[in-house]
Design goal:
six-stranded antiparallel beta sheet
């Protein structure tokens, strides 16, 4: 699958912009002109939410009450029109998704156009909090299987409800019977088991596949949710007003292959960059294997993150797919990209 065109209306600093995309596109421009915003809009079509904004409403251009993203993509059996609309009306925010002008739920919309994004901030996946790593794993698996999207959605909703009940209980504001907790516990156990299974399969996929850029292994420190474990942590959960077991407590550690040394502690910044890029390549292969669709690869300012040797190594290893890159300076782009037959330069 590949992106043919993109139209943005009141999206970030693009009040009215149109783009077309061949096999390879290089977007050139200084910082703050909207290069990354183009990738953000494309990713919105893949996930139904922004990867940059804390609140999706923040991507609406200042002074406007709506934003619109329209795209045409090429599938095996023809073209498909994808539309995302964000609006603020009477203080209320809403999102709407259309496929060929027919409304779709977000859970169904997000599987239509797969993409893989690499940004300088992705280094934080290795070095930052477990929640960021869980969010990354969720973003991959949510693109590949509707069952996962449904299960993680149900799990997170039940988790919020259960944590609220724990807080109200601790504060003495409301009494909940054991049956009240049992209802939500069962939802967490059923859907948590599904989430864990998918995560285990993805980690196994990563560890079993060859890594040409930088060899590493991914260790899954999982928190299994069962009736027995919930009973075990019963008192601690009521004291902290937090559910202490389940996929919400999972973590994932990147280790140098054949060792237990975490790359977050023992890897240089360059090795951490290459680890993440290797992970993105594996993500691309995984999505293609699971969905049959080759995702579009989005590379944000990659030339500032890698040295020349590794830039060429990375570009040589990229699978045959549509790629959209951004850079601040034209001279940063290797000449072999410009010499390719199907490359378009967009200067903002």
């Amino acid at each position: 699958m590949s992106l043919i065109s993109l139209k943005l209306k009141n999206f970030r600093n693009h009040t009215n912009a149109s783009f077309t995309f061949p096999l390879t596109t290089v977007i050139i421009g200084r910082n703050t002109v909207g290069k990354t915003s183009v990738l953000e809009a494309i990713q919105f079509l893949s996930h139904g939410k922004s990867f940059k904004a804390e609140r999706d409403m923040d991507i609406i251009s200042e002074g406007h009450d709506f934003a619109r993203i329209e795209a045409k993509a090429l599938e095996e059996d023809g073209t498909v029109a994808l539309t995302g609309i964000l609006a603020i009306k009477e203080g209320r925010f809403s999102k709407k998704f259309l496929v060929n002008n027919v409304a779709r739920r977000q859970i169904d919309f997000t599987s239509r156009f797969p993409s893989v994004l690499f940004t300088p901030e992705d280094l934080e996946i290795i070095t930052d909090s477990p929640s960021l790593r869980r969010s990354y794993i969720n973003s991959v698996l949510s693109q590949t299987d509707k069952k996962y999207r449904i299960s993680i959605g149900i799990y997170e909703k039940a988790l919020r409800q259960r944590n609220r009940m724990l807080w109200l209980t601790r504060e003495g504001k409301k009494y909940f019977s054991p049956a009240d907790f049992e209802y939500w516990d069962n939802i967490l156990i059923i859907n948590g088991g599904i989430v864990t299974q998918f995560r285990e399969e993805f980690v196994a996929y990563v560890n079993e596949h060859e890594k040409q850029v930088l060899p590493f292994s991914l260790f899954y420190d999982k928190s299994t949710i069962t009736r027995e474990r919930l009973d075990k942590y019963h008192d601690a959960e009521r004291a902290t007003a937090t559910t202490l077991v389940g996929p919400n407590r999972d973590d994932f550690f990147f280790r140098f292959e054949g060792t237990e040394k975490p790359i977050s502690e023992f890897g240089s910044r360059g090795e951490q960059r290459l680890t993440i890029f290797q992970m993105k390549i594996l993500e691309t292969f995984y999505i293609k294997e699971k969905t049959g669709a080759t995702p579009t690869l989005l590379l944000d300012d990659i030339f500032s993150e890698l040295d020349n040797t590794n830039i060429h190594r990375v570009l040589d290893l990229l699978p045959h797919q549509q790629t959209i890159l951004t850079t601040t300076h034209k001279e940063f782009v290797p000449t072999n990209i410009y010499n390719s037959a199907d490359v378009e330069l967009i200067e903002l």
